[in-house]
Design brief:
The chain has 403 residues and is an alpha+beta fold. The chain is built from 15 helices and eleven strands. The strands form three sheets. The chain has a six-stranded mixed beta sheet with strand order 1-2-3-9-6-4. The chain has a three-stranded antiparallel beta sheet with strand order 5-11-10. This is Cytochrome P450.
Length: 403
């Protein structure tokens, strides 16, 4: 049966750690606006073509109001990072959203990231020292991919990095699709909320030189600042986004580059390719997670299909990034690909606020790894790499390496 004639389960099941599900190519060519069944059992519309995904992400008619009564629930438990009550506290659109982005975004400029670069490199060096001391084989995700972005985002926010294991668990519950039950999710989110409340109270008493202290210093909304609740939820959101996605991407990027070792050799021979190699890894990542859901508040047409008001649309940036109409040899990894207008960070007013941070971390990790561990290789066959399951983010469970 063709994909046109069925309602696919979404996320589309896929055992391959680094390769896309076969259905993506068929969906792009024959059924770019497809019906899918979410983990909750609710139906949604899946978009897989580059032009459609880009247009929808930039279109203000497609909102993040996934708590609307007729919006599809992503997971049976509801809530979570896309549709929980916390998701509604940050303004969704218009001038309010732009104001929030301006206040928070100045901490994530390319200029600030360039200034942070030596500190990131130092952290990477220290983590690799520890990894080498423990000896091969090692899990690159646990030993480098996870701790590096956590240390960086904790320093930026002024949060104790010693609590990182708790953050990891709390983040996972916020990103739940099928892994956790309702009671566990509510308890974890309550703990996370209480933790951030206590942290902000401490910063009011003793401000530091960090993002959360500065947001408090701006003042209340009447003074052009954010409410206490908005600052708290911003802190929670940045902590989740600042470590989950990049931690997973570091592991996937290194695995992709080592899966065909001629890629790693190319970077050793010409480190100037690191920047374009990072962008190509982001584009080719077929295991990036759920994609971005949007709720349609008025009837709209996409690719010749009329979508009624109340439709929940899922934009698969990962499928769109392999669109042959946009990228030559889209299924191939070209470390020199430029330009590379991939959609890994979204598009439009809601494109990823932390993309300069993520790019810088990925580049720094690659620079330090190539210099320190040039003989790095996967310690298991690619076929044995396992995906992270049950969460809205994609990743590899472990990335076993030796050198």
């Amino acid at each position: 049966m063709s994909v046109r004639d069925q309602v696919l389960d979404y996320p589309i099941p896929n055992d391959a750690a680094l390769d896309p599900p076969a259905e993506w190519a068929e969906l792009r060519s024959t059924c770019p606006v497809a019906h899918v069944r979410l983990p909750s059992g609710d139906q949604a519309t899946l978009l897989t073509r580059y032009d459609d995904v880009r247009a929808v992400l930039a279109d203000p008619r497609f909102t993040r109001r996934l708590t609307a009564p007729d919006a599809a629930r992503l997971s049976a438990e509801g809530g979570g990072v896309f549709s929980g009550e916390f998701a509604q506290i940050i303004p969704d659109g218009g001038e309010e959203h732009q104001h929030w982005r301006r206040l928070v975004g100045k901490w994530f400029t390319a200029k600030r990231m360039a200034a942070l670069r030596p500190r990131m490199a130092r952290i990477a060096e220290d983590l690799i020292d520890e990894l080498v001391e423990r000896g091969a084989p090692a899990d690159l995700k646990a030993d480098l991919g996870f701790p590096l972005p956590v240390f960086v985002i904790c320093e930026m926010l002024g949060v104790p990095a010693d609590d990182r294991d708790r953050f990891s668990y709390w983040s996972d519950t916020l990103l739940n699709l099928t892994r956790y039950g309702q009671d566990e999710i509510e308890a974890a989110q309550g703990e996370f909320f209480a933790y951030m409340s206590d942290l902000l109270a401490a910063k009011r008493r003793e401000p530091g030189e960090d993002l959360l202290s500065e947001l408090i210093a701006v003042g209340v909304p009447e003074d052009g600042g954010l409410s206490d609740l908005q600052i708290l939820v911003t802190g929670m959101g940045l902590l989740v986004a600042g470590h989950e996605t990049t931690a997973n991407m570091i592991g996937k990027m290194v695995a992709m580059l080592l899966a065909d070792r001629t890629r790693w050799e190319s970077l050793l021979a010409d480190p100037s390719l690191i920047r374009t190699a990072v962008e190509e890894s982001l584009r080719l990542d077929s295991n990036s997670g759920f994609g971005l859901p949007r709720y349609l508040r008025e009837e709209t047409e996409v690719s010749g299909t009329v979508l009624p008001r109340g439709t929940t649309v899922v934009c698969s940036m990962a499928a769109a990034n392999r669109d042959e109409d946009v990228f030559d040899a889209a299924g191939e990894m070209d470390l020199r690909r430029s330009p590379n207008p991939h959609l890994a960070f979204g598009a439009g007013a809601h494109s990823c606020l932390g993309q300069a941070l993520a790019r810088t971390e990925l580049q720094v990790v690659l620079e330090v790894l190539l210099r320190r561990l040039p003989s790095l290789e996967l310690a298991v066959p690619v076929a044995e790499l396992e995906r992270v399951e049950g969460l809205a983010v994609g990743g590899l469970a472990t990335v076993p390496v030796r050198w």
